[in-house]
From TrEMBL:
Its EC number is 2.4.2.1. GO terms for molecular function: purine-nucleoside phosphorylase activity. InterPro entries: Nucleoside_phosphorylase_d, Nucleoside_phosphorylase_sf, PUNP, Purine_phosphorylase, Purine_phosphorylase-2_CS. GO terms for biological process: nucleoside metabolic process. The keyword Nucleotide-binding does not apply. Pathway: Purine metabolism; purine nucleoside salvage. It is an enzyme of class 2 (transferase). This is Purine nucleoside phosphorylase. Residues 34-269 form the Nucleoside phosphorylase domain.
Length: 272
């Protein structure tokens, strides 16, 4: 295990190529087209997205770690959505797990190495807009990275002006007219944000807060992928209602919205 971790950290691109090669061997599919990463509470949506061809533990591929968070199944599906072959990651690795940025980015880098040119990053998040009740899907228009980390190395300067694709957001609104969008901020976690941190985030123009997505989005852009981000508001952010935050609420809200979210993803991917 230590050798695998050392290789993932020393040469993440090679680790992704190795994982993609094993994926092709297991699935018999040389190239996939689209990748979807399902966040907290989103897992039941996987049954609605498309026709599952193969379902495997993600740990069957090199350099993937088992899940540690409830609501993240740690499985990978090769799914057919119309003519589009899609990789659906049922869960993700989070920075707060302590495995490093390369482990967080490994899924999207593997997807890119497997041929995916589009990635859909989803999450369950806290909402700062009082008009977005729990269960509201929101397009990510931009982000603020509060993790003090990056998947980039050295002088790998990367333009993030249109990181969350305008084209893909417009496509989502064709599928679901009036779908709102907002700025997402990733905190490191695993503790939830304090009310003071939420007040700070609001001043900075943040609409959504969570503990994932931004590092994956940066890695995906570095790999040349087009990125679509969709947050599901699972609770109001800390201090907005006075109620305590509970991960079970995140999962319950996601389960309640699962069918709708799966249909949305299926329709968007079908129209790429």
């Amino acid at each position: 295990m230590s050798d695998a971790v050392d290789l993932l950290q020393s040469d993440p691109a090679a680790a992704a190529v190795a994982a993609a090669a094993e994926l092709a061997r297991i699935t018999g599919v040389e190239n996939h087209d689209v990748a979807v990463v399902l966040g907290s509470g989103w897992l039941p949506a996987a049954d609605v997205v498309g026709t599952t061809v193969i379902d495997i533990p993600v740990t069957d591929l090199p350099y993937f770690a088992p899940p540690v968070v409830e609501g993240h199944a740690g499985r990978l599906r090769s799914t057919q959505i119309g003519d589009t072959r899609t990789l659906v990651f049922l869960g993700r690795t989070h920075l707060y797990e302590g495995r490093g940025v390369e482990a967080v980015a490994h899924a999207v880098r593997t997807a890119a190495a497997a041929g995916c040119r589009v990635v859909v990053l989803t999450n369950g998040c806290g909402g700062l807009n009082p008009s977005w009740s729990p269960g509201t899907p929101v397009l990510i228009s931009d982000h603020i990275n509060f993790t003090n980390a990056s998947p980039l190395r050295g002088g790998a300067f990367l333009d993030l002006t249109d990181l969350y694709s305008t084209r893909l957001r417009e496509l989502c609104r064709q599928v679901q007219p009036g779908m709102p969008e907002g700025v997402y901020a990733q905190f490191r976690g695993p503790q939830y944000e304090t009310p003071a941190e939420i007040r700070m985030a609001r001043v900075l123009g943040v609409d959504l807060v969570g503990m994932s997505t931004t590092l994956e989005a940066i890695a995906a852009r570095e790999a040349g992928m087009e990125v679509l981000g969709i947050s599901l508001v699972t609770n109001f952010a800390a201090g907005m209602t006075g109620a305590p935050l509970d991960h079970q609420d995140v999962l319950d809200t996601g389960h309640a919205a699962a069918h709708h979210m799966g249909v949305l993803l299926r329709e968007v991917i079908s129209n790429l």
